[in-house]
Write a structure and sequence with these properties.
- Strand 4 and strand 5 form a beta hairpin.
- The protein has one domain (4-214): Alpha-ketoglutarate-dependent dioxygenase AlkB-like (Jelly Rolls, Sandwich), CATH 2.60.120.590.
- The strands form 3 sheets. A 7-stranded antiparallel beta sheet has the order 1-2-11-8-13-6-3, with helices on one face.
- The longest helix has 14 residues, at 34-47.
- It is globular.
- The protein is of the alpha+beta class.
- The chain has 3 helices and 13 strands.
- Bound molecules: N-[(3-hydroxypyridin-2-yl)carbonyl]glycine and fe (iii) ion (FE).
- N-[(3-hydroxypyridin-2-yl)carbonyl]glycine binds next to strand 8, strand 11, strand 12 and strand 13.
- N-[(3-hydroxypyridin-2-yl)carbonyl]glycine (MD6) is lined by residues 124, 132, 137, 147, 149, 158, 180, 182, 191, 193, 210, 212.
Amino acid sequence: MIDDLFCDLDSKDQRREVLTDGALILHGFARGETAGLLAAIGEVIAAAPFRRMLTPGRLRMSVAMSNCGPLGWLSDRQGYRYAPLDPDSGQPWPMMPELFAQLAERAAAAAGFPGFAPDACLINRYEVGSKLSLHQDKDETDFGAPIVSVSLGLPAVFLFGGLKRNEPTTRVPLVHGDVVVWGGPARLRYHGVQALKDGRWPETGNCRINLTFRKAGPPDGR
Ligand code: MD6
Ligand code: FE
């Protein structure tokens, strides 16, 4: 049957690539859901528009960001942190769409981290030339939970390093629908995104959009 044929192709394309102990790429894991994800992103962004935040060193980030869920990641002159309110509107961040939370939970489970319940979803928009320098994700209270990262739109090169900034990095190409999961012994590895190359991806406005799901608050939710 035609359905079975497509299912076969799908499962073949959903290749799991282990980067290191605790970090892996689920190639194409979100590919069947990208239209729904983009529609939901549009609704979040209508309520909490993309903005380019200031770093603590007062540089303007090249990546534009927004958030949904109980907590949102912020950067300003005071530093990096999670907060329940959007500082631009004074309102709570938009609710995390059910589709987002379910995808993140399924991807984490497929990567060996069952029971992932994200309370924060950072939405990154990369325009041509935007990049993210090497960093660790360490503003969360609980490093026991993994991070789930969904790539949409234009392809990008993810840089994956070690536990110290000066260790060598691996270049990992990521495309529309790929999901990276990061946890356990890999949770604090340095990583970044190389400057986005020019390309056409009309559904995302010729940009790359990345969703990163985290458990940012305390493990018991208090
Ligand atoms: C990005 N991602 O791919 C930025 N962090 O646009 C991250 O900074 C990231 O993809 C932790 C784990 C996975 C990630
Ligand atoms: Fe990160």
